[in-house]
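User: For my dataset I need records formatted as: sequence, then structure tokens, nothing else. Please produce one.
Assistant:
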Amino acid sequence: MKILILSLLVVIISSCEGKNFDSTQELVTYVNEKDNGYLQQKVVGGVKFSLLLRPSDLIAAQEIEQSEKEANLDSLRDKYKQFLYLNLSFSKSNKEILSTLPATQAQFASLINELTFNMDEKIHLFDTKKDTFQMLDYIYPRMYGLSKNTSLLLIFDKNKISTTENLFLTIEEFGLNTGEVKFRIPADLLKKNLILRNL
């Protein structure tokens, strides 16, 4: 009986695994290291795809930095921890795809239309049981050629996603001539809490 209770405690503690950081920069550096698994990259047809699992504390930190009034860290954590945030970016020749891929004005307009209005229909998140999770929203900031990549912030309801299953993110063909691109998000990353001590 004692062994069973001890085993259950180990499972509970490991499922709540966390890591603390003293600064936003320290956390950003950690998630951007390829060995940690938070950042994945692929090159398909000359297009570089990057997927970054973005901790909710980074979203909270960004709001605090942009806020003109004092923000409450605990309330921001409660606000953002219920969502799963994924940064998806595309680039070709180290430039935004809008600067390099469209050969005609019609292709340019079509690609902007897809990025602005249709990516929730082109990007799919599901687990190993083939349960599909609807994207709540996504943010596409136009950078007008000032960035090295085209980036989207994808938002999903974390409460509906099991942390015991690996997740898969697929991006349908939408004008990049790459076909479908797929990423695997390990379940152990979903269980980890990356926490900023100070914001």
